[in-house]
Amino acid sequence: MIEVKQLSKSYGPREAIKNLSFQIEKGEVVGFLGPNGAGKSTTMNILSCIMPATSGTAKICGFDVFEQALEIRRLIGYLPETPPLYGDMLVRDFLVFAARIRNVPLKKTNAAVEQAIEKCSLKEVDGRIIGRLSKGYRQRVGIAQALVHDPDILILDEPTIGLDPIQIIEIRKLIKELSSSHTIILSSHILPEITQICKRVIIVSEGQIAAVDSLDALTTRLRKGERLLLKVRHSNNEIIKKLSSLEKVNAVTEHQPSQFTIDCEPNADIQDEIARLILDNKWGIIELKPASMTLEDIFLKLTLEENEVRP
Amino acid sequence: MKNIWIVAKKDLSSYFSSPVFYTLTSVFLILNGFIFLNILNFFSLQSFQAQQLRGRGIGLNINEMVIEPSFQNMGVILLLIIPLITMRSFAEEKKSKTFALLLSSPIHLREIIAGKFLACMIVIGLMVFLSSYSTCYLVLIGNPEIGPIITGYLGILLMAGCYVSMGLFASSLTDNQIVAAVISFGLALFMWIIGWGAQAAGPGLGQLLEYLSLVTHLEHFLKGLINSSDLVYYVSFVLFGLFLTHRILESARWR
Fold first, then answer.
1. Domain that holds residue A263
2. Closest Cα of chain B to A269: distance in Å?
3. How many CA atoms within 13 Å lie on the side-chain side of B145?
């Protein structure tokens, strides 16, 4: 559905993105992950035909972003980093305008606006002036304008930036609901967000792709061996020694008082043995769990030691 | 065409919901009314004196002595007012990042520009319409020729079109409304006084400067003449300004 080949963009001498290539299939929810200034917004601006690329091609549904921009703009809904809202308009009027300018026929406009208001739960503010809405509502109006013409593809640039935790949860829920009927590209530098919403991640760093893969695959690929977290009631010096002496255990460290991380070999499956050891010695087991590698770890690892893991 | 109207309608609704429009219209009407009142006073004084001198009421020409100067003065007031109407067109869209919405919509850049031009012209048309009570009053109490009045309004609106196209161009250059207003005011004033250089500039260049001046062409309209050369001048002036605006906005995408 979206095909990007060797895409580059320079602002004067500064290269914002270099030779980006990736593909996105219909119905996918893809997270665009990278630190600030990695080139996420630039890529999204190019995909939504706002600015042309310096070199390379990007095709959406077979249309070229440069040659057939008008066709593409009908297919996409775009929420830029700053939601494009006219502060002096009423929410409903603004959505009507957004629908009309996106070629929704006059007869269907009301229904389309109604649906967008419903989807983004804007019912209670639909007669209010946009400039007076809270940031969370403004963000939702921003999403509503992107989906009012029911586009196949939604491009959302940092949709949760600057919101409070409750609003973030609501927006995430909304995006999740939308993901059943739209192809979504979502950018963020907030990692848990991507883990919760997206199935596939494109990690960019300094204008280049550091990794493209599904979340699970990334986690497995990067996890070199297993790690367990252990918390006990009575800590003493013997613990590290005894745990280390177990088979398949590589290293044990006490990262906080009475809390240990145990690095063991891949597929070691030694939870039982560890538990038995603790019970036998009456150290008092409080917690023993596998430490799953978070996306944060992956992200750091990828952007720090890119060369090691690049596919 | 439909897209142009959608953009224009959006702009109009924000003009009418902001105090800027009402302030500008009030100022325009007050200034215009004050000037009209003075011209009319002067005219009646003159007619009165003429009557006394010659003994009978040969009317002085009301078209020449009242309507023409009123239009000329209106041209000057519009010169001051229009940059304040056009300044927000693109500067505000760029500043509040709403331009991305227009640019990512299935609509041509030229339609956006045409829509904004149309919105400004409607606003100005409305202001001029509101000020027309003075002319109506004259038609009621005197008997001026209607022809020059109609061509006069046509000329004023065409000249306003030139101001607007310069204003849109200035607004496309920057995201700061004040900068846009200053640039368009400077441009408009320059095009107004450019003919002043004609006498010093010798025959060839002088003629050119005279031709380029916005005022020269208005004169004919105020006399009741619709010259094709004046029409061509105003229409091409407007189109050239809009063309430059298009180039500026298009090139901004590439940077």
1. 225-291
2. 53
3. 14
